[in-house]
Amino acid sequence: MSEAQITDWLASQRQAMIDLLRDVVNIDSGSYDKEGVDAVGARFERHFAEHGIPFRREGHDSFGDAIHAEVAKPGSNEKPVLLMGHRDTVFGKGEAGRRPFTIKDKRAYGPGVADMKAGVVMNIFVATAFHKFGGNPHPIKLLITSDEEIGSPSSRPVIEREGRSARAVFNSEPGRPTGNVVTSRKGGIFMHMAITGKAAHSGANFAAGISAIGELAHKIIQIHALTDLTKGITLNVGLISGGQSVNTTAPYAEGQIDMRYVDPKDRAIVMAEIERIIATPYVPGTSATLTIKGEFVPVVQSESSKALFENYQAAAKQAGLTTLQGEFSGGCADSGFTAAVGTPTICGVGPVGGLAHSPEEYLELDSIVPRAQALALAILRG
Predict the structure, then answer these.
(1) Less crowded by CB within 10 Å, the N or C end of the chain?
(2) Which strands make up the sheet holding 362-364, listed edge to edge?
(3) pLDDT of residue 76
(4) Sheet containing 326-329: which strands, arranged edge to edge?
(5) pLDDT band for position 75 (50/70/90)?
(6) What pLDDT digit, counting tens, does each position of 275-320 carry?
(7) 109: helix, coil or strand?
(8) Percent of the chain with pLDDT over 70
């Protein structure tokens, strides 16, 4: 095996990568759509079967199954390199039909095309190259998860387990629009607050009512006031609902909270303030509860992760990506879980794309091959 065999073969697979990407982008796979997420998984499994790569499913009753595949010499007990990615999207059923995979001016469009079905496709082809030609100095494990967009409620323990047993982790979230990779990320917590009031006729019996919506409004103002942009702490109540009718004081209201932070120490400080706000009634007679629905931990670059990045950066230069740097992202990702268990981790090594979570999401098609080659060369440099 020579490096050239791997990189030349990946270059020859550009259209095959695009074809597989088209297939999976055209399958709806919102995080709560287990059937769709598993259908995307089945398409990836077909690729593994066609190329003789061992794979298995780790089932889950509510969310999509985790898919594992491995390229290793028989009997190898070395720690593997873990290539990670998620196949769920933020889009609901019918989106793929309304907005199927399309190509225009060297960019591909479609739900999840960059975030992050392209990264999973890239991981699969890099592993396939090593399966075909050998030469990987360590076993390569693929982990394809199902619920990252909602905080990985089912996948987190799987990711942490696989991360602990790996020597290094490459998470193939999309490369930044600058062409850079991600070396640090914010942590985030998704929360739900539920408020109970008391219904009453808002004209005939107003004084007997207790407005849960009024209480929610007070809490939103207090929660938003916890934002501290200088520290990178942001609070956003992004969804609200409540009430029974326009002429009834609201017996119930709810809001969903997105919290982001940079310094791990800030988590406890901000959470204590949120819990105080939830426990404090501003409208007498209301009560409230807080539930954490999903959580990401920050990616903080360790010395070993810095060394992994420098190895990847050198490999990327060899693949022609001469200006690639590491950068910070305010978005969260599964890479935080593997970084937090102490495994060297870098993120955003997937093909370059942008405008994720929007109808304008795009992928730079010319980035697929060099990013795959950079990943393969980084693995070879081991």
Answers:
(1) C
(2) 102-104, 107-109, 362-364, 350-354, 174-175
(3) 75
(4) 55-58, 66-71, 140-145, 81-86, 168-171, 345-347, 181-185, 326-329
(5) confident
(6) 999 999 999 999 999 999 989 999 989 999 999 999 999 999 999 9
(7) strand
(8) 100
Helices (H), the chain: 3-12, 14-25, 34-51, 95-98, 118-133, 156-164, 212-224, 264-279, 303-318, 335-340, 368-381
Cα angle 121, 310, 162 (rounded to 5 degrees) comes to 50
Measuring CA to CA, which residue among 275, 268, 334 is closest to residue 299?
Answer: 334
- For the cut 70, the answer to whether the pLDDT of residue 1 exceeds it is no
Alpha-carbon distances of 143 from 19, 22, 57, 63, 182, rounded to whole Å: 21, 20, 10, 15, 19
Percent helix, strand, coil in the chain, to 5, is 40, 25, 35
Angle at 129 between CA 128 and CA 130, to 5 degrees: 90
Q: How do residues 326-359 score in pLDDT, each as one tens digit? A: 999 998 999 999 999 999 999 999 999 999 999 9
Taking a C-beta distance cutoff of 8 angstroms, is the pair 341, 160 a contact? yes
CB 120 within 8 A of CB 48: no
Closest Cα partner for 4 from 129, 141, 131, 127?
A: 129
d(CA 89, CA 95): 10
> Considering only CA atoms, which of 129, 184, 124, 144 is closest in space to residue 377?
129
Range 151-157 average pLDDT: 94
Could you give the C-alpha distances from 36 to 28, 41, 118, 123, 305, in angstroms and in order?
6, 9, 17, 21, 34
Query: Alpha-carbon torsion 320, 136, 328, 173, what sign?
Result: positive
Mean pLDDT over the full length of the chain: 96
